Amino acid sequence: MTARSCVVTLMITFICSVASAQMSASEDRVRSAMSVAPLSCSSAPLLSCGGSVTASPSCLTDVYFVDLYTFSATAGQTITLTASTSTGYQVLVTVQNTAGILTSNFGVSPVTLTYTFTASGTYYIGLGYVAQFATGSYTLKVACGSTTPSCQSSGTINLNSTVSGQLSASNGTACLGGTTYSAVYGFNGTKDTPVQITFTSSFAPYVEVEPPTFDTGIWRSSKTSGSVTLIYLPQVTGNNWIYFSSNTSTPTTGSYTVRIEPAPIDPCRRRSVTH
To answer: What ranges do the domains of the chain cover?
Structure first.
């Protein structure tokens, strides 16, 4: 490689680095402008699943024109946004709540963004060009779907151990089905060795224990917060399951603790042996 070609290569690399840095700075700045758009924009029209809107960014926040839309979501719902424009500008698309941007994507047209809502509520959809004071026609389309989350174990509890946690919307309803939030822990049981499971919660609990084959086990529930105790005799050696939820018909959140220990021996039921 000649000295001249080395200089040219270095100049091209420098120019690309500067352009990349400038674009990154512009993206960060328009994202910042978009995050405060709910305070700057006087209106946020409602967008619904299957909807499409053609417009030009009209709300000035910082040095960027953006548009903001309102979207009513349900927990577990997936939204896919597609923004297209012939302006030549790079497009920033966001999903936001009142606290700020939850997710975003930007690039040359068309730009797509997919997000799954973890909680029901009202959210914002934002769109703007990554160029100062830029306007021009765009089309924004909204497609919706639902995900069916699987039941994920919250962990494994050892014998003579206690775990604490929070039952919340992030647990979902898949572990026990129905409309209430539910969760599950695993524990290693030994065949014919009884254990005592104590479940304490700030909500009225429903607790179910099942063997690794998922055959019907035992269950206990309460109409009030507090503790329930189950004595469980593992049918086989291996991983067993403790499922729980609130004993209500509506989603309920709250704190809980689970403790597993050897079952106490009832001296009245001991067998006497004589020689």
So the answer is: 36-146, 161-264
pLDDT in tens, 182-206: 999 999 889 999 999 999 999 999 9
Please classify residue 219 by burial: count the beta carbons closer than 10 Å to its beta carbon, then call 0-12 exposed, 13-18 middle and 19+ buried.
middle
Q: How many CB atoms lie within 10 A of CB 270?
A: 8
- pTM here is 0.49
Q: CA 179, CA 182: separation in Å to the nearest integer?
A: 9
CATH domain 161-264 topology = Jelly Rolls (2.60.120)
Topology of domain 36-146 in CATH is: Jelly Rolls (2.60.120)
**What beta strand segments (E) does the chain contain?**
52-55, 59-61, 64-73, 77-85, 91-97, 100-107, 111-116, 121-129, 138-146, 161-167, 182-189, 195-201, 205-210, 218-221, 226-232, 238-246, 254-262
